[in-house]
Amino acid sequence: MKKLPARLDRSVAVLITISLVVALFGAGARTVSASPPARAVPATFPVTVTSADGRVTIRSRPTRILCLSASATQMLYSIGAGKQVVGVDKYSTWPPGTPRTDFTGFETRAEDYLYLHPDLVIFAFFEGTLVKQLQLLHIPVLVLPPAANFAGVYNQITELGLATGHTGAAAKLRASLGSFVASAARNAGGRGRGKTYYIEISPDYYTATSKTFIGAELGLFGMRDIADAAGRGTAYPQISAEFVLKEDPRYVFLADTVCCHETPSAFDHRPAFSLLRAVKDHDVFGVNDSVASQWGPHTIEEFVGFIARVLRP
Hints:
With about 325 residues, this protein is an alpha/beta fold. The protein folds into 2 domains: about 45-185, Rossmann fold, CATH 3.40.50; about 190-310, Rossmann fold, CATH 3.40.50. It contains 11 helices and 11 strands. It has helices spanning about 10-15, 15-20, 70-80, 130-135, 150-165, 165-185, 215-220, 240-245, 265-270, 275-280, 295-310, and strands spanning about 45-50, 55-60, 65-70, 85-90, 120-125, 140-145, 195-200, 205, 225, 250-255, 285. Strands 7, 8, 9, 10 and 11 form a 5-stranded mixed beta sheet that branches. Strands 4-3-5-6 form a 4-stranded parallel beta sheet, with helices on both faces. Helix 3 links the parallel strand 3 (about 65-70) and strand 4 (about 85-90).
C-alpha cells in the first residue's frame, strides 16, 4: 500500500492503518437504536473493563488520566470525567481548554509520560511496547481502537464510564447520542437512499469505504459509497480522478480541508471535474478532517447533523 504524502498531518496518515483493525469490529451499522442497551455495572472500585488487548482491572477511581485518543477525550469530557484528565494528545481539539500536550500516542518511551503521574493511560491504537512498559510500571492501560459502527462507539462510552466512575452519565450519553442519530436519520426522510458519495481524506484520492465509521454514518441515510468497488481488502483505498469521474458521485465530502487546505472550489476546478453531477448541483462540501479520523460524540453529532441538513428533496 502506498503511503500518504509526508506533508499530511499524522492524524490523517493514521487513517490508512485503521484498515488493519477494522475487521475486528465488523461492517458499518445501517440502523441505530434510539436507546442502545447498557449492561449493569458496579458502582464501586475495583472494576474490570474491556480493552483491545484484554481485560484490565482498575483498582481505584483514576484521578490523573492521560488520554492519547481524540475520540476518547470527547467521551471523557461528555460523561463528566474531564476533571480527572491531566493530559491529552495533540489531536484532541474538542472540547476547547483541555490540557493538550505534544504527545501523539506513538511515543517510544513510557517514561515520557511519567511527569504527569498518570494512574490511567488511554490509547486509540495498540502500541505494544508502550503498553508493556506502562504495565511494568503498574499503570493501567486502556486501548479503545477505531469503532467501525455505532455499537462500537456505545461500548466504548460504557467502558469509559465504568473505568472512571461515571456509569450513570455514560448511560445517559449513550441514550442521548442514539436518540440524536436516530432522529437525524428519520428527519432526512429517506432523501439519501441510494444516492452515491465520495469522501476524500487526502488530495491524492485516498478515501474510505462503507466498512469504516464514517461509512456507517453515511449509511444511516441509505447512501452508497463509490469506494466500495475499489476496496480490494482495505477500508481506506487510494482511487483516482478517473475513477471518480467514472462513478460520478451524487455528493462529495472533502475531509482534507484542514490538513491540505482543500476547498469545494478547488475540487470543482480539477481537470474534467466540471462534468461531475455533484459539481454541477453544488453538492461538493468541505468538512473538518476529524470526521474521517474520530468517532467521539461531538464529531458524530456535527457530521450526522450536517448530512441531515445537506440532503434535500
